[in-house]
Design brief:
elongated, Diaminopimelate Epimerase, Chain A, domain 1, four-stranded mixed beta sheet, 2 domains, 8 helices
Amino acid sequence: MTRLLRTRFASGFLLAWFALFAWAQVAVPDLSRRVTDLTATLSAEQTAALENQLAAFEAQKGSQIAVLIVPTTQPEDIAQFGIRVAEQWKIGRAKVDDGVILIVAKDDRKLRFEVGYGLEGVIPDAVAKRVIAETITPHFKAGNFYRGIDAGVRQVAHLIQGEPLPPPEQRQPSGGMGENLIVLMVLGFFLGSFFSALLGRGLSSGLAGAGTGTLAWLSASGLGASLFAGGLVFFAVLLLGGLVRGGGGASGSW
């Protein structure tokens, strides 16, 4: 009976310890941007500069780089925390696994690169450690975290540039506002011309111009483009509306 109680006590203690450890883990933040700073270390301008730099690199190369700054990863080691971040964020393209995450634990004075399998050939552990030691850490020791992070991600991006990765997917440009405006203006002109026989050119041109401009604005065209489209349809219907009519005909009786 005593042995059974001891076994149950030990099992309960282990379960409680694991539950406490899991509860005490630092939560991985949601991935909503390329630079996540939970310490307010970077200014808004510095964060925006890094965001733009990493977005431009991703658009040009396809590979993704993200930065995460947290106060601490304790009670976990930064390597354990980094694994959880990589598993949740899934940085990089799915079939290429070409993502890199720079994690900085500011209060712990620790930093780490999590490198996807697709980039381990160009950024093995030895190279990542050298970037940390020779490029980033000197700036951190001088108290300049932005310059260290900026220099580090630039060097990593330079290394990735020479790697023969699949090209980024090229987004096909949509017809955009230009085609939408043309369609709206043509439609507005023909409708205005059609109703000019019933309402007169003055009223129909005003309605056609106002309607075209309103629809253009609602379709996300700029105010200037909307006014231009509406004005052009107004004058077109006013000057030429009588030339476009419904089918002619004649009536008779017997």
